[in-house]
Amino acid sequence: MALDDMDLSITKLLRQNPRMPYTKIADTLGISRVTVKHRIDKMLAEELIILSARTNIKNQGGKMAMLGLEVKSEDLWDECMLKLNSLPWVLMGFKAMGKSNLRVMIYGETDEILERNIDDFRYYQCVNFIEVEILGKPIVGPY
User: Fold this and answer.
1) Do the domains 57-135 and 5-45 match in fold?
2) Which long-range contacts link 116-123 to residues 24+ away (Cβ below 8 Å)?
3) Contact assessment for residue 7 and residue 41, using Cβ atoms and an 8 Å cutoff
4) Where in the chain are the domains?
5) Per-residue pLDDT tens digits for 128-137
6) Closest C-alpha to 70, from 133, 125, 130
7) pLDDT at 29 > cutoff 90
8) CA 101 to CA 47: how far, in whole Å?
9) CATH architecture of the domain with range 57-135
10) Which of 7, 57, 124, 135 is deepest in the core (most CB within 10 A)?
């Protein structure tokens, strides 16, 4: 299912205020509360949207890094994804082209914790560690 204009309007409002009540969304868009609930439930069931809480690194002064990893073989992707999804300090992962076919953005509260999180990847059997870029202070977006 593709998102239509109404679904996109609902998700836009939820990005602005993830705690916005269905009634407020309905009033803003001129539709019923039941319609809002039905559409959100459907988008969640089809995994078209994800509702989650995230750490606001920008306000905490945390440190981030982008890792370039090489998944050793195609049949190890699932193993790597399970590992990445289990780590609370992994912010995002991207399948990429080139030798570093997996890019992973990670977080650490301090330099020491970030370094420890980076070092953990050196010992994962499913990847070769290729490169690391320490990122500066976030300038766009709250995360």
Assistant:
1) no
2) 117/65, 117/87, 117/89, 118/65, 118/67, 120/87, 121/67, 121/69
3) no
4) 5-45, 57-135
5) 888 998 887 6
6) 130
7) yes
8) 25
9) 2-Layer Sandwich (3.30)
10) 57
What are the start-end ranges of the H helices in the chain? 5-16, 22-29, 33-45, 57-60, 77-86, 111-121
Topology of the domain covering 5-45: Arc Repressor Mutant, subunit A (1.10.10)
Q: What is the Rg, in whole angstroms, of the alpha carbon atoms belonging to the chain?
A: 19
Q: Coil, helix or strand for 80?
A: helix
Mean pLDDT of 100-127: 89
Closest by CA to 63, choosing from 13, 106, 17, is: 106
pTM of the model: 0.62
The residues facing 68 across adjacent strands are: 103, 131
Cβ neighbours around 17 below 10 Å, total: 10
Cβ-Cβ contacts under 8 Å for 31 (sequence gap 6 or more): 6
